[in-house]
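Quick one, tokens below:
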């Protein structure tokens, strides 16, 4: 069978305007609760960033907090994504939840969270992950796996007392959404798409899009 012949039907429950409501955050919370019950990796999301001249790049990160303010993830502030965000703060997040044939795209401006917020999350991480942050200059070229293992051992020895402070070059970002689109897969490719756009008045306008 060729790749082109690989296909399956999407048979999700309908996404009606009345059920979706006026508030994209509330709908996200409901869909996220469903994903939590069904998906192995419900917090995994693609994050797209771009250079100022419009060359995009995308990678997976984990959602670590969400509320009415926005969507929070953590990373190395010297990584490629962070360098792109320093020059172009606009990004896009994408969740694909296969078990319910659902996708959510969230576009907006991405800014660093407060140091105190990053500190609070950093101390909650397992010791090995905190040490690992010191061993990895994320997105820099490494000459070998052995080098990474050696850097980890050196960091582990340095923090043998288990006190590992958050380095200034690692922390969180928050995407503050100005557009959120919910996609529900349906039969015959007649999917439901509802897009919420933030208006100047700080409210949300909801529109149905063709699939
Ligand atoms: C399931 C999964 C979860 C990941 N979570 C994170 C994360 O939360 N933060 C992070 O910096 N990288 C995470 N990564 C690694 C990123 O995809 C990426 O390789 C890394 O951040 C470097 O990206 P960059 O060079 O584009 O900055 C994850 C990868 C996968 C597959």
């Amino acid at each position: 069978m060729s790749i082109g012949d690989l296909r399956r039907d999407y048979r999700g429950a309908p996404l009606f305007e009345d059920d979706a409501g006026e508030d994209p955050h509330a709908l996200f919370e409901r869909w996220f609760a469903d994903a939590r019950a069904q998906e192995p990796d419900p917090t995994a999301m693609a994050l797209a960033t771009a250079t100022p001249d419009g060359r995009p790049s995308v990678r997976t990160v984990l959602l670590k907090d969400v509320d009415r303010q926005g969507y929070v993830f953590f990373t190395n502030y010297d990584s490629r994504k962070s360098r792109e965000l320093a020059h172009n703060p606009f990004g896009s997040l994408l969740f694909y939840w296969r078990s319910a044939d659902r996708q959510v795209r969230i576009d907006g401006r991405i800014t660093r969270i407060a140091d105190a917020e990053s500190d609070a999350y950093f101390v909650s991480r397992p010791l090995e992950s905190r040490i690992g942050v010191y061993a990895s200059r994320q997105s820099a070229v490494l000459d070998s796996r052995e080098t990474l293992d050696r850097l980890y051992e050196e960091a582990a020895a340095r923090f043998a007392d288990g006190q590992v402070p958050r380095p200034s070059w690692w922390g969180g970002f928050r995407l503050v959404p100005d557009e959120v689109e919910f996609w529900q897969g349906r039969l015959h490719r007649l999917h439901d798409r509802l897009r919420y756009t933030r208006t100047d008045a700080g409210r949300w306008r909801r529109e149905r899009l063709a699939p």
